[in-house]
Amino acid sequence: MRPDPGQVLHFSEDPTITRFVPHVAATVQQPESYVWAVDAGRCPDYWFPRQCPRAMAWTVPETTDADRERIIGPGCGRRVHVIEYGWLEAFLNVRLYAYRLPAEKFVPIGEPAPNAVVATEPVEPLGPPEPVGDLLGLHERAGIQLRLLDNLWEFWDAVTGSSLGWSGIRLRNARPRRETTRR
Q1: What does the pLDDT average to over 36-61?
Q2: Distances (CA, A) of 123 to 27, 28, 36, 85
Q3: How far apart are CA 131 and CA 66, in angstroms?
Q4: What global pTM score does this model have?
Q5: Sequence-separated (6 or more) residues with CB below 8 Å from residue 128
Q6: What integer pLDDT is reported at residue 181 of this predicted model?
Q7: 179 DSSP assignment
Q8: 3-state secondary structure of 150
Q9: pLDDT at residue 2 tops 90
Q10: Alpha helices in the chain, H assignment, sequence order
Q11: Are 175 and 151 spatial neighbours (Cβ–Cβ below 8 Å)?
Q12: Residue 9 burial (CB < 10 Å; 0-12/13-18/19+)?
């Protein structure tokens, strides 16, 4: 599920949206009102239930062989998405929809590299929302490894300290960090 040329996508569990109106998102640090969407490269970040915490890593030109093998794994492609076991049922059963929006209304946002696109005026979808369907199948067809862990934080710490590209979404919904034993 990716946008066609001239489009961006907004993913939602609500199939009844007829107009997207800029708002201040509770989950971001920007105080401005936006309509949020993503381009083709960032669509896989949203192939999840909305509230599902996920950590994602992918190779970039600067990625070292050691980091790729240590975090993504030998023979495991170029990208890995990680969720907690407690979210598997929601992941497998969510009804997710994609809204196609006109790309010309949007500008990139995010530092150091854009992670989304935003519009500052209301935007109407280009048609009815499309069911996204089988999220596990989407990951498989895209060559993205989906990994299940009891707790995201050790993976997150390894990824953010590596040479891989990475993103985390809804991490506040992850299980608490485990206490580590000091020796």
Answers
A1: 95
A2: 21, 20, 10, 36
A3: 39
A4: 0.89
A5: none
A6: 46
A7: P
A8: coil
A9: no
A10: 65-67, 88-93, 135-142, 153-160
A11: yes
A12: buried
> How high is the pLDDT of residue 35?
95
* 112 prior amide bond cis, ω within 30: yes
Model confidence pLDDT, tens digit, residues 114-144: 788 999 999 999 999 999 999 999 999 999 9
Strands 35-37 and 107-109: unpaired
For residue 66, which phi and psi values (nearest 5 degrees)? -65, -45
Provide Rg for the chain, Cα atoms. Answer: 17
Q: How far apart are CA 116 and CA 34, in angstroms?
A: 11
**Look-up: residue for tokens 């609500």?**
14
What is the enclosing helix (H) or strand (E) of 166? strand 165-169
Q: Where are the domains of the chain?
A: 7-173
